[in-house]
Specification:
By secondary structure, this protein is an all-alpha fold. It has helices at about 1-20, 25-35, 45-85, 90-110, 115-125, 130-135, 140-160, 165-175. The protein is built from 8 helices and no strands.
């Protein structure tokens, strides 16, 4: 009964908030969330207003996921265009980049679990601090402090390996022949 009554206003709201052709998806997610959290609905409140707040949040989530997909598509497109145009990095640059990525991933794996989770959400999944807090079920302050600690640890682990000075030192120590 609630679905039949509130689908049309929810659809209008989603469309007007910018969901466009994805309005149906936003409404479906909102209705599922509303059903799951009916216990949070306060007696005396208007269900329509409560549902429209959930729809608005789903449209915001939709916008964020679109931006992430668009950024990823641009990065992939730029990389592919560069390869097609013969503008790819030199083999040496690609090897160094691969080495840096491998070193970073290894360093992240060595972090304590909670710091690793914070860094993974923030930088690999590109979630904001509030999104990370929601995803991990942590207070926002915990996300900030664990991310900060993780970045300090990563810097301490990686700076000697990846700094230009360290590379020059390694070259000086390499056997010359």
């Amino acid at each position: 009964m609630l679905v039949a009554r509130y689908t049309a206003p929810a659809y209008r709201a989603a469309w007007l908030l910018g969901a466009g052709h994805d309005a149906d998806d936003a409404i479906q997610e909102a209705l599922v969330k509303a059903f799951r959290h009916l216990s949070r609905f306060e007696d005396g409140s208007r269900f329509g207003t409560w549902l429209l707040c959930i729809v608005a949040n789903e449209v915001k989530n939709l916008h964020r996921s679109r931006r992430r997909r668009d950024r990823l598509a641009l990065r992939v497109g730029a990389a592919t265009a560069g390869e097609l145009n013969g503008v790819a990095d030199s083999p040496e640059a690609e090897a160094l980049a691969d080495e840096r990525r491998a070193a970073l991933l290894e360093a992240v794996r060595l972090l304590p679990e909670k710091e690793r989770l914070a860094v993974t959400c923030r930088y690999f999944l590109e979630l904001s601090e509030p999104e990370t807090a929601r995803a991990l079920g942590w207070p926002l302050g915990s996300v900030k402090s664990r991310t900060s600690r993780a970045l300090r640890r990563l810097n301490a682990m990686l700076a000697p390996r990846l700094s230009p000075e360290a590379a020059l030192d390694a070259l000086d120590e390499a056997p010359h022949g």
